[in-house]
Every structure is written in structure tokens, then in C-alpha cells.
Amino acid sequence: MANAWFESVAEAQRRAKKRLPKGVYGALVAGSERGLTVDDNIAAFAELGFAPHTAGLSNDKRMATRVMGQDISLPVLISPTGVQAVHPDGEVAVARAAAARGTAIGLSSMASKPMEEVIAANPKTFFQLYWVGDRDVMAAKVERARNAGAAGLIATLDWSFSYGRDWGSPFIPERINLEAVRRYAPQVALKPSWLWEFAKTKKLPDLTVPNMVATPGAPAPTFFEAYGQWMQSPMPTWADVAWLRELWGDKPFMLKGVMRVDDARRAVDAGVSAISVSNHGGNNLDGTPAAIRALPAVAAAVGDQVEVLLDGGIRRGGDVAKALALGAKAVMIGRAYLWGLAANGQAGVENVLDLMRDGLGSALIGLGHESVDQFTPDDLVIPAGFERRLGAEIAQQAVEQAATAAPAQPRKTTAG
Ligand SMILES: Cc1cc2nc3c(=O)[nH]c(=O)nc-3n(C[C@H](O)[C@H](O)[C@H](O)COP(=O)(O)O)c2cc1C
């Protein structure tokens, strides 16, 4: 049998492509419209170079850190994704792999496994919510997450329902019914190893989303039913974000999908404990720049008030080092672990986390550091014009206006 271990995320992706039915693979490639953003997320990392030292290096590679109230063994977390139909163990396999490698996971509202099972596999689980329904509906889901013992909450709001891809969207069935089987059959017949994984469980993927209901075990909507409810929901306001944060209480709360400095400041005002600088892996508005280009300005503005994470385009440990050098406390990975999961289940996700650790270790050695908190922009070769300062001027104007509107009170003195 061929060696199941892979040496790069690129190899895991090749194996995933071979193994998965075309539609499932296409759903993970995702992206929107022209694919500008999804491409830039990767290209921007390639534009950044390293400035390595030659001697006086250290073999200490301290990677442990603390994010969202959790001690983790490396600054790489699992970003929430709906992994419908990739692997029968789905998010439970991902949670086990993350636990085995000492890190935390974000669990998607659109996940295929109930949060109670996932949290049992890895207590360092943050439940991710989209804004679906009204405040009462949201409150009921938050209560379920609290009762299940979620370690934190992630609110993802960067979604604008754009659809259509120039390279074509995959056919994703509403349910696995006769029509779906007929349309999927030719793809599936060519992918016996994928089918065999599901056949062993005597269950086909049912494409329901069990975390979209408030009661564990209640009948769950299908992915598309849930998507329909989401589309019809009113768009959340900043007051809703503050309300959700308050409702959740003292445990950590992340706002995911922040790209602009002015929004980062609003997130701080809403009381969040962390943000992820993210463009939803290039799945939201196409033409949004790579998340790594927006990171430095956001980190400079709010990095001393909240934890700033980054996701989008991380495919190797060196990318993690680049993000930390530009101000991120940690990164979250999406497709990288999905390719690992597709290629080799739980072991494949562990394999990807090990590749991240090894690559980050090489960056630590080469750049002459002992610990992941020592990376700085001086470690990098940053081409002119690399950065994008989204909303930075507006944020600055707001600060100046606030200063003029409320002039500083003259300091009281005890004398005379
Ligand atoms: C197939 C797929 C499904 C996703 N589903 C979700 C989701 O349910 N919730 C969420 O907050 N983000 C979701 N995302 C975005 C990821 O959490 C993350 O922001 C993105 O994948 C990071 O980019 P990367 O894939 O280049 O690492 C999804 C991304 C992909 C590729």
C-alpha cells in the first residue's frame, strides 16, 4: 500500500482530488465569481520573503501560546467549515486530530456532526454562529452551545450571498434521494475509496446540519433549508453583535471576517475578545484583497485590545510565521485541513498540523528566534505596496472627530 503520509498540503490536495467525487471536491475548492480573492489569499503569501540569519541560531522552538482562553501547543487553530460528505467521521475526526496535536477548533453551524459529540472529542471547541433568524432564535442556539460546554463562541458575519463561479459550481444535492444518486452515480462510481469509507458506516452522507436547531437531537434542516432561512434573516447590526457578546457572558467571543480597521474598532467597542482578519477564504465578495494584506493595519489599530488572528491562504508553516510577523497572535486554517481530512481522515488532519509545526519550526530556526512571539516585520522581505489599509482613514477621522467633539477636561489641580 502506498504511504498514507504526505509531505505537503499540495500533495494532500492532489490526493483529495483523486479520492473525492467531483462535486464534493468542487465544494471545498469553493471561491466566488472570478476567484480573485481566493487566488490573492495564496499569491500574497508568495510575495512575502524571508530575511534569514546565518549563525547564532537557536534550536529551541517554543510554539505554545494561549488564544481565546485556551492553551494550545502551536499558534494554528482549525477554522470552522461545513465538511459535509468529505469523510464519515467529519468534524469529530477533525476535533480528535486537533486534540491529539494540542490545538483548538472552530465548529461550524453548518457542520455535519452535533456539537455535543465534537466537544466530547475536543473540549477546546468554539462554536461558530451565523446570524440566522431573530434574537430569540439566536439566544436558543447560544444556550445550546453553553449547555454543551463550548469553550468560546465565533460569530461569522462576512457573508453576502454572492453566487456563481466562472469555473462552474458543483452540483450539491438537497438530500441523498434517487435523483441525487442518479446524478451523482457517475462521479461516485469513479471514487470507490470515498464510497467505501461511507459504506463501512452503512450510512450515506445525509447533508443535514444538526447544529442549526436549538435542541440536541431535534430533526435538523438540510444544508439548503438552513441556507434559505439564513438568506431570509435580517442582516445583523453592531448592536446585535454587542448583544450576542453580552448574552454569551464571560467566555471568549470572536468576530470572524473583519477586514477593515474601522470595523475592527467597532468590534472592540462591541466587546469582542478576538477577531479573525478573514475574507471567508475568498468565498464572500470577490475582489476583497488577501486577508494577509489587511492584517498589519488592523493589528496596529486593535492588537493591544483584542486577540488578532488571521485566516485565508495558509498552506505551510512558513505562512504561519509570516502572519505572526505581521501582527497575528495565531492563524486559523481551512482548506489545508479539509484536504488532509479527505486524503486520510483524522490522521490526515494530524499530518497537516504536523506540517504546520515543522514549517514553523524551520522559520524559527532560520530567523534566529526561540519562540513564536519573537517574529517581527524585520523577519520579512515585504514588497512595496503589499499592504491594503481598508477603512483606516475613516477610522482615523472618527478618532479625530471624537477628540474635537469631547475636548479633554482640564486636569484638576489641588493648588489654588
Ligand atoms: C468549504 C468551506 C466551508 C466553509 N464553511 C464555513 C463555515 O461554515 N463557517 C465559517 O465561519 N467559515 C467557513 N468557511 C471559511 C473558513 O472558516 C476560513 O475562513 C477559510 O477557509 C480560510 O481560508 P483557507 O481555506 O484558505 O485556509 C468555509 C470555507 C470553506 C473552504
UniProtKB/TrEMBL annotation:
Segments passing through the bilayer: none
Catalytic residues of the enzyme: 280 (proton acceptor)
Binding-site residues, FMN: 80-82, 108, 128, 130, 156, 256, 278, 311-315, 334-335
Binding locations of glyoxylate: 165, 280
E.C. no: 1.1.2.3, 1.1.3.15
Keywords, comma-separated and alphabetical: Flavoprotein, FMN, Oxidoreductase
GO MF term set: (S)-2-hydroxy-acid oxidase activity; FMN binding; L-lactate dehydrogenase (cytochrome) activity
Domain of life: Bacteria
Cofactor(s) of this protein: FMN
InterPro entries, per database record: Aldolase_TIM, Alpha-hydoxy_acid_DH_FMN, FMN-dep_DH, FMN_HAD, MftD
Domain FMN hydroxy acid dehydrogenase: 1-385
Listed PANTHER family: 2-HYDROXYACID OXIDASE 1 (PTHR10578:SF107), S -2-HYDROXY-ACID OXIDASE-RELATED (PTHR10578)
Record-stated family: Belongs to the FMN-dependent alpha-hydroxy acid dehydrogenase family.
Record-given protein name: L-lactate dehydrogenase (Cytochrome)/glycolate oxidase
Top-level taxonomy: Bacteria, Bacillati, Actinomycetota, Actinomycetes, Geodermatophilales
